[in-house]
Amino acid sequence: MQSSISLSSSYASTVSGQRHAFSLSDGSLIPSTIRFCGLRRQAFTSSSLNHHCRRRRQHSAAVTAALSNNGTGPTLFDYDLLIIGAGVGGHGAALHAVEKGLKTAIVEGDVVGGTCVNRGCVPSKALLAVSGRMRELRDDHHLKSLGLQVSGAGYDRQAVADHANNLASKIRGNLTNSLKALGVDILTGFGTILGPQKVKVGSSNKVVTAKDIIIATGSVPFVPKGIEVDGKTVITSDHALKLETVPDWVAIVGSGYIGLEFSDVYTALGSEVTFIEALDQLMPGFDPEISKLAQRVLINPRNIDYHTGVFASKITPARNGKPVTIELIDAKTKEQKDTLEVDAALIATGRAPFTQGLGLENIDVVTQRGFVPVDERMRVLDANGNLVPHLYCIGDANGKMMLAHAASAQGISVVEQVTGRDHVLNHLSIPAACFTHPEISMVGLTEPQAREKGEKEGFEVSVAKTSFKANTKALAENEGEGLAKLIYRPDTGEILGVHIFGLHAADLIHEASNAIALGTCIQDIKLAVHAHPTLSEVLDELFKSAKVKAQASAPVKEAVAV
Known about the structure:
By secondary structure, the chain is an alpha/beta fold. 30% of the residues lie in helices and 23% in strands. The protein has three domains: 79-221 and 352-419, FAD/NAD(P)-binding domain (3-Layer(bba) Sandwich); 234-349, 3-Layer(bba) Sandwich (FAD/NAD(P)-binding domain); 428-545, 2-Layer Sandwich (Enolase-like, domain 1). The chain contains 15 helices and 27 strands. A hairpin with a 5-residue loop joins strand 21 (379-381) and strand 22. The active site is at 532 (proton acceptor). Its EC number is 1.8.1.4.
């Protein structure tokens, strides 16, 4: 989302010979030898900054607008690229644009960092770090198996909340500093598109022009009808991350990523949790085999119960000494099923795009359930399905894949296009993770999706599996509960999907996602070497267990003397 914030000075250059450094929000310095956000270190030296600025000015002066289907744009521009929204997607696009020599600005009407940094994946990971350690300290059986004795583990709620808030503040400051250090202008205020290549910033009449514009306004929590949110006893993830209370009994509406992660936090801190899920099974978005195992480990042994196949048709906050009341109806028949009384309710029913007030009507763009329609290159489409010249939309606002790193990848893809290199992002190569204890991660298709695709396109689908119980590092940690699953084509060795449940699954998935992105086949990955003993060998064994008919395609290279 967009934001409004007073920005402090972000760039400090300390010259000692040829050394340069950059200040972070905590005052610490990053030396120029560090690679930041994927940029080459030369991008952070003062000489290269001056070079970037000169190149952007030269490039901008030479840019002229083409005639568009929606009217005639300006002939000269204030910026080469203007990004509306300074979340993770907008930030990633801006850094890549600077590397490509574009004069760039970001319009932000809320706070830099967007949902992920301020109200999403960053502060939630701070809370999950606490819940993970609390589980370890309170698991007597696990500790005794390692020869450890710990007693009286407890927590300070306010200190835990401060940890999450401080982390968000630090990352927000780092993002702001990195943008300003590279010469990206941060324009404070809400961005409204006035017409082709024109944006009004804030409540003033300031109009900014740009050759290309990216919409990156993100999303907000989705609250179904009939649910009254008071921010105290009926809350969304935005409120829950503040951890103002730890309720004795909390109902979580929705059992997807958000609901699962908060169930991990609340139960570790002593709460009883009740899931309310509209579909017939918990964790409906996961591969069925993985969700079945995850339920056995993450839900059944914990202080969690659940209702499936029901809607929360009405939720009333606690007031006048009465608890939160939740009316449940059958998801199919809509008949009354039950009424729950709990201390708090967390609404984790997904997120809705934040696209109101963008001025899309000025360029004849009609949203679809709030999402901005785009093609496979993130180019915005108007009401007639035609391309809107020089306008793109990335991240949650387009609904293709509502993940922070997907938004960043889409933004980088757009920058590649506007600088002359055609690029189409393969969304099936983008991984996802749920940071429970243990973690869940995935990339590509689930087994049912892959088999449906195979039936339609006429190819066979095979499945390979390996257990964490066979991994030395996992056993050393006494964390053998876990499974890795590979879905593939046995005729070609193409990877269709990989799903992992177990210790550090969120880190392990990237070998598979990079293989899909690069088009690497299983028969080639089988030849890769993994350090022993490491968790990465879970993937090594997984790929080696696959039965592929095709031979390795990697050419044999000359031996290298060591």
